[in-house]
């Protein structure tokens, strides 16, 4: 992410975290579209992280959602996958690549067969320059990338599997409150049916909060972990953080309303009550979980860690788990 490199090693064939680590990165290392500005520094950080945890290649990583284009299109049913791929390649050249397919990589999934020998296909088109930069990044760190996923797809699929394991039977919304975006995943019958983002920038809000509460002697707002330090001071001094919670809740409500509207229009599904799970570093704002519960827009509010609850994962601190 734009705030940290996150290393996670799962035990074989289990949703059990074996090793993990987070390394903060500077704000100029990645652009707002998560293209890489400082390749050498980032590759050294990745290499050091793997050595510290004694992890080995190959690795799985993901491209940022902002670097891809997703389209669902109706196409003819072809005799084989090669013909379908050629047809989709032609579509990308004419409709996305401005006549040049060389700048893109793509993958596809057949969603359903329709009438009259047609089918609905989802295509995912990635900017080749960004994907090649990410490959080069790991090569510089002497690591081999075996799996390249898309961030939103990976989180969505993992949550589907966790909900199925939990035998969940109600709609679910997962809200990831990151540094630059609030991301929302919506699940119906444990299938990820919606993903949306809402841009945020809370730096000015936190700066104002620090000044108003005279915390500036203890907090350097230019540091990478200034948010964690603000959290610590709020709890240590028992400061009322309602004004911060209110801003967060307003933005969370906006994206939830947008998701409900999308599902009503596109999926013909009306969601009244749902379970709400939080993840991301900003979700740890003191009292935010309690304040969200008091708004009443979800009868069950919890951190994503509760979906992983088991003896194997109980040793991982919450402030690490919601970010990995």
Summarize the structure.
With 324 residues, this protein is an alpha/beta fold. It has helices at 39-53, 81-95, 128-140, 151-165, 203-212, 226-236, 242-266, 288-295, 318-321; strands spanning 4-10, 17-24, 59-63, 68-76, 104-113, 118-127, 145-150, 172-177, 181-188, 191-199, 275-279, 300-303. The longest helix has 25 residues, at 242-266.
Polypeptide structure, described:
It contains 9 helices and 12 strands. The chain is an alpha/beta fold and 324 residues long. The strands form 4 sheets. It has a 5-stranded mixed β-sheet with strand order 10-9-8-11-12, sandwiched between helices. A 3-stranded antiparallel β-sheet has the order 4-6-5. The protein has a two-stranded antiparallel sheet with strand order 1-2. The radius of gyration is 21 Å and the shape is globular. It starts with a strand and ends with a helix.
């Amino acid at each position: 992410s734009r705030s940290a490199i996150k290393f996670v090693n799962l035990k074989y064939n289990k949703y059990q975290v074996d090793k993990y680590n987070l390394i903060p990165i500077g704000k100029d290392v990645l652009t707002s579209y998560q293209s890489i500005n400082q390749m050498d520094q980032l590759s050294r950080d990745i290499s050091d992280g793997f050595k510290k945890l004694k992890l080995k290649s190959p690795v799985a990583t993901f491209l940022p959602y902002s670097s891809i284009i997703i389209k669902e299109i109706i196409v003819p049913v072809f005799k084989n996958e090669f013909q379908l791929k050629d047809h989709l390649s032609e579509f990308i050249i004419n409709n996305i690549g401005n006549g040049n397919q060389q700048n893109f990589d793509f993958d596809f999934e057949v969603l359903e067969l329709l009438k009259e020998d047609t089918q609905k296909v989802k295509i995912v088109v990635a900017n080749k320059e960004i994907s090649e930069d990410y490959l080069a990044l790991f090569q510089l760190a002497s690591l081999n990338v075996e799996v390249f996923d898309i961030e939103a797809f990976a989180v969505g699929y993992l949550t589907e599997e966790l909900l199925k394991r939990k035998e969940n039977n109600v709609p679910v919304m997962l809200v990831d409150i990151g540094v630059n975006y609030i991301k929302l995943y919506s699940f119906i019958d444990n299938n990820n049916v919606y993903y949306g983002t809402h841009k945020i920038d809370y730096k000015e809000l936190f700066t104002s909060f620090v000044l108003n509460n005279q915390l500036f002697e203890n907090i350097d707002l230019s540091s990478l972990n200034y948010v964690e330090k603000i959290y610590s001071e709020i709890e240590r001094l028992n400061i009322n953080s309602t004004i911060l919670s209110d801003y967060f809740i307003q933005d969370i409500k906006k994206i939830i309303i947008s998701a409900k509207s999308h599902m009503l229009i596109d999926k013909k599904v009306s969601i009244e009550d749902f379970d709400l799970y939080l993840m991301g570093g900003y979700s740890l704002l003191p009292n935010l979980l309690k304040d969200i519960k008091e708004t009443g827009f979800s009868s069950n509010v919890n951190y994503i860690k509760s979906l992983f609850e088991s003896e194997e994962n109980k040793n991982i601190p919450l402030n690490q788990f919601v970010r990995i």
